[in-house]
Amino acid sequence: MAAKEVGDIVSLLSTDERDFLVDSNGEKVPISDLQGKTVALYFSYPYFRTCAEFTPVLAQIDRKLKEVGQSFEVVQVLPVDEKVSYNEAIESTSWLAVPFNDQSVTGLLKHFGVNSFPTLVLIGSDGKTVDVNFTELIEELSGEAWEAFLFSQEKLDKLLEKAKAKREAQTLESLFVSGDLDYVIGAQGSKVPVRELVGKTILVYFSSLQCPPCRAFLPKLVEHYHQIRNVDNAFEIIFVSSDPDRASFEEFFSSMPWLALPFGDERKKSLARTFRICMLPSLVALHPSGRTLARDAKQLLTILGTDAYPFTEEKITEAERRTEEMAKGWPEKIKPDLHEHELTLARCSSVDYCHACEQMGIAWLYYCTKCVYSLHPQCALKEAEMDKEGCVCDGDVCRKI
Ligand SMILES: [Zn+2]
Ligand SMILES: [Zn+2]
Fold this sequence. Notes:
Strand order of the largest sheet: 11-10-9-12-13
Number of helices: 13
Low-confidence stretches: 386-401
Helix content: 25-40%
Shape: globular
Radius of gyration: 23 Å
Bound molecules: zinc ion
Largest sheet: 5 strands, mixed
CATH architecture of the largest domain: 3-Layer(aba) Sandwich
Structural class: alpha+beta
CATH topology of the largest domain: Glutaredoxin
């Protein structure tokens, strides 16, 4: 997003009937209190897990900035029309929000061109937006990102530089070797030294037998694995298990043709922390040098199939292009027969869920602002457009039958 002149924060956030926002207890707070402060407009849709993941990080940044005495406020903008969900979303925070069901929400979404959640728009005390993708920056820096909010372009550039250096310095050994623990295991528990894997493209696969989407995804991943290995042997997957007991781990691992961290291995914690894993299944792609290529390699595989290999910047750009392409011609809002309310199109992550086919989403979902409900565009549109022609949607693609 290019820097935008927002002007006066009061006229941006108020309406003819309202000159206040609400705090987490629902108490009115005059918008004029925000004058002279840096304001982060936080657009979030609480049912997307990406938002559930992002909210605590933003809360931490908010706390840190207040601690060092910054004039900073988060204003949450929630496109939900159901009071209970709205209350739940604001209750747990310590920041402000545009009131429930307020007419300004649609206008704000439009004004800032928001079509994916979470989106963070930062407005400086001078009434100008800052030309940085803050959601990406936080993704990159996590807890350290608060420093970026004491912003000057110079400071931001330094932080991005630091994030880049950190990324470049990561190796397979820095990730997977901890004291004597310098191996992973293969079938029947045979030890494979980490140093033997250096120079390969690696997928780190966080998963658990207990999680239905993990079980659903496994056969597809096995297929991709064999196809990729057929063309390039310098490729490996390492399973990092979240199974609560050894029996589940062994049962699940026995159906995988690749490597794993041993059950109960302490390295799991640092890996999950490094990649900020809070949902399963997650698939992180590592370059042969060990640096991170993609934190959501699952989405890449879903969009590009085996062509996603070797998960490079070029492939990520291609997936992004196809994702945008995909949505061309899809209406912004629809009213499918499957659901009683109108649904809105938005970007989603690969873990968001379709209520029709009960599969995870691929890049886009139509979501309901009134209740917890979302549909794949393929599932939402198929009655309207494709059923006549005899199509089926298996959750990944719609195909003619
Ligand atoms: Zn679906
Ligand atoms: Zn609904």
